[in-house]
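Friendly challenge for the regulars: who can give me the structure tokens for this chain first? No prize, just bragging rights.
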Amino acid sequence: MITAIVQAIDSNSVAAPASGAPTDRSARTIAAVIGRLITAGTIESGAKLPTVRQLSKQLGVSPTTVSEAWRGLAAAGAIETRGRNGTFVRSSGMPGTQLRYRRISAGSGQYELDLSSGIPDVELLPVLGPIVARVSRQSLTSSYLDNPVLPELAERLAADWPFETESLTVVDGALDALDRVGQIVLRLGDRVVVEDPCFPPMLDLLDRLGCEVIGVPLDDDGIELDGLRAALELDPAALIVQPRAQNPSSRAMSRRRAAAIAKLLAERRVTVIEDDHANDISSAPLVSLGSHLPERTIHIRSFSKSHGPDLRLAAVGGAGEIVQSLNTRRMLGPGWSSRILQAVLLELLDDPGTAEVLEHARSVYAARRRLISTRLTDAGIEHPNGDGINLWMTVDNEQSALLSLASRGIGAAPGTPFIVSAASDVAHLRVTAGLVPDARLGEIADRLVEAALTEHANSGQR
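First reply, four minutes later:
Bragging rights claimed.
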């Protein structure tokens, strides 16, 4: 196959072979030629492609050039990576891999009380009416040439950033930020270290980017050091962490653990990507690796769960080269996030009433979680300590627990899509405890205990 690819690239040259002119072996040309070979059937559907190093050696180009070509083909849906098994031509008749996030949202809307969603309680969000009214009186006319971020908002965000940021921008939510940053710093086949368990859409995203995911377990202080140390020996390109209210475990990274992680990363070229999705509804203090490694940390702060999901806004700040690359690439697409919505967010951040609303929300979420946690502990059901709106609980059997809750009109998220490594045989559910109405807390807690202890029909032990 390598010979066929090299010959096709050589014959693709604009100059005649006898002219002595160099053959075009750019990433774009390599991708285009291989794409045509796949379309023509010369490289068959399902075929395993050469490794990046094998092809780069034969073509006399750098591995980075071939990796870029592979990435373009993957983005076009022509090829797919299967981790250490290699890269393959995607089978045209084969249905796409089921996305993890669809497995946690499959029953959405079917239950009287849906605790699978991971969304905030709308009753605890700031009221936008007065804010929007104030914004509507402002001059909202702007130009394509204006700064993508309102200067006043940029100043307000920078003043509250967890470390001194080289550059800052605003995008359409945390996942949009993760996607855009990932496209800049990651290449096809790159290894990425994540927390295990991890947020399913993040895993789906890394899969679509063609990355190999390395999961590292968590303890009460954050990502475990021994596991991280072992993962770093595999030369990952990035480490993605959720510094507080980790989804799904709800754990937070301690300052001591952050310092230890930064020490491990000090001599390695690893980009740190932090996803602070919970923001101000988390009771835990924000601990950022950017305070130790500001030049290669990208911090993402979402306002969806705290200020309103339909604001669709998240701030991205940190390593200046990455943020500026994000802004430049974005000008070829949406350009910027609505400055009208940015004006609404700025009003919210400056309004004293917003702080009171957020303080109340934190208190209510903590109280709901605390009551449910107490019932689970009394029943001997393991679950991590933490905060935020989600609760990660062990169950005897995932499917039986889900059915038990469904029979009571309650939805929960299965734990399997959150798990990175298949090493653990402990079953879990993720429950959005923050959505349980106060009047039903005791009842729902009892239902969760009952579901956790429901054994599979064929199981004789817990």
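The longest strand covers residues 212-219. The two ends are 52 Å apart (CA to CA). Your move, everyone else.
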